[in-house]
Design goal:
The chain has 429 residues and is an alpha/beta fold. The protein has two domains: 3-21 and 233-428, Alpha-beta prism (UDP-n-acetylglucosamine1-carboxyvinyl-transferase, Chain); 23-218, Alpha-beta prism (UDP-n-acetylglucosamine1-carboxyvinyl-transferase, Chain), CATH 3.65.10.10. It has 13 helices and 23 strands. Helix 1 runs parallel beside helix 2 (49-60) and helix 8 packs parallel to helix 10 (318-326). The longest helix has 13 residues, at 23-35. The radius of gyration is 21 Å and the shape is globular.
Length: 429
């Protein structure tokens, strides 16, 4: 793992940034283009390690995927165009690729094996494997299919009526992708609303889907048609600069063409509730995925409680929200966030350990953390734990540290934001 020395000594941040394309949407664009009939063009694709692994896996499944400048061109031949791979499908560090691809492979009449890195080998898959088995898929792996490597023998699938035990967009998406291949109607009931990129993309690619009061239904045996997809900027990536502008004195940062999907804008709601100076200009550039420009200025912040239905709308932003809370007056409590324990690392433990190293007053709870502000951050040696979001959070923390920060595992950031450190320099230069 690479170590990066971060010495900013910055008094303010000013500038305009276009963050990379949304990771969740980039993954799905490749997958939907691969199972659709005809050509799909994807613009503003995220060329991060995770999404490149998705491309690699679908090329192994026989799909023609080419890069033309900054565009990705996929020539799909429908569901039947997917062919049995001759080698193991390596997802690298991508949990999204793993879980969603399981839903696709479950209904394909061939054998395949999925493997990933050490982090993926620790991430539970039974939440996806269990409902897919109920639909008729044959799935085996370590600990009865809970961990990779996982072998899939696709079968003819039966429809399913399934109540999600936890709010998870990845589980929902895997079942929907399997349901599109099943013999009848599949219905999913969510305990809380999660990101709905899969539902939107089904509609964009010409599929039929019903969404009513957290009941989501798809008919099986649907064929999709290739589309032109524009990927908005990733709000999860933008969140790091939104927080940076809010906590560094005398700052103003403008973020262009950021995705404003309401299932993902929990970070904006939290910033507003904490008192941040934030302006949203919605430009509605894409009818399927709303987007706009976000302007954030340095602010006087106050601690709040973050819990309940908002958690799935900001689960990936909680590490940077924890940093935000260290600079707010009073106490911030994060609850109902057990899902953080099964991300690329246990993000509750990682956030608490590394912010404590920097001088923050923060403690872990069973389902989240308590942050006591306002803290002066010092500096020192910290680790990303190989987790891109932990790494980016610590890099933003370095902007307000009194001493230099040495970040171990800085290369993990390439998973979702290859130009992250260059963009930091743009606004402090």
């Amino acid at each position: 793992m690479e170590q990066k020395q971060l010495t900013y000594n910055q008094k303010n941040l000013h500038g305009i940034i276009s963050v990379p394309g949304d990771k969740s949407i980039s993954h799905r664009a490749i997958m939907f283009g691969s199972i659709a009939n005809g050509e799909t063009t994807v613009r503003n694709f995220l060329f991060g390690a995770d999404c490149l692994n998705t491309i690699s896996c679908f090329r192994q499944l026989g799909v023609s995927i080419k890069q033309n400048d900054n565009e990705i061109i996929i020539v799909g031949e429908g569901w039947s165009g997917l062919k049995e791979p001759t080698d193991i499908l390596d997802v690298g560090n991508s949990g999204t690729t793993t879980r969603l691809m399981l839903g696709i492979l479950a209904g394909r009449p061939f054998h395949s094996v999925i493997i990933g890195d050490e982090s993926i080998a620790r991430r539970p898959m039974n939440r996806v494997v269990h409902p897919l088995r109920e639909m008729g898929a044959s799935i085996n792996g370590r600990e009865n299919g809970n961990y990779t490597p996982i072998a899939v023998q696709g079968n003819a699938l039966q429809p399913l009526n399934y109540q999600l035990p936890v709010a998870s967009a990845q589980v929902k998406s895997a079942i929907l992708l399997a349901g599109l291949q099943a013999a009848g109607e599949t219905t999913i009931i969510e305990p809380a609303a999660t990101r709905d990129h899969t539902e939107r993309m089904i509609q964009q690619f010409g599929g039929q889907i019903s969404i009513q009061n957290r009941h989501i239904s798809v008919q099986g045996n649907q064929e999709l048609t290739g589309q032109n997809v524009y990927v908005p900027g990733d709000i999860s990536s933008a969140a790091f600069f939104m927080v940076a502008a809010a906590i560094v004195n005398n700052s103003e940062v403008v973020l262009k063409n950021v995705g404003l999907n309401p299932t993902r804008t929990g970070i904006i709601d939290v910033l507003k509730e904490m008192g941040a100076d934030i302006i949203i200009n919605d430009n509605g550039k894409d009818m399927f995925e709303p987007m706009g420009t976000i302007t954030v200025r340095s602010s006087n912040l106050k601690g709040i409680e973050i819990s309940g239905d908002i958690i799935p709308r900001l689960i990936d932003e909680l590490p940077i929200i924890a940093l935000l809370a260290t600079q707010a007056d009073g106490k911030t409590i994060i609850k109902n966030a057990e899902e953080l324990k099964v991300k690329e690392t246990n993000r509750i433990d990682a956030v608490v350990a590394e912010l404590t190293r920097l001088g923050a007053k923060i403690e872990a709870t069973d389902d989240g953390m308590i942050i006591y502000g306002k803290s002066t951050l010092t500096g020192g040696f910290v680790s990303s734990y190989g987790d891109h979001r932990i790494g980016m959070m610590l890099a933003i923390a370095a902007l307000i540290c009194q001493e230099e920060v040495f970040l171990e595992g800085s290369d993990a950031i390439n998973v979702s934001y290859p130009g992250f450190f260059e963009d930091i320099q743009k606004i402090i230069g």
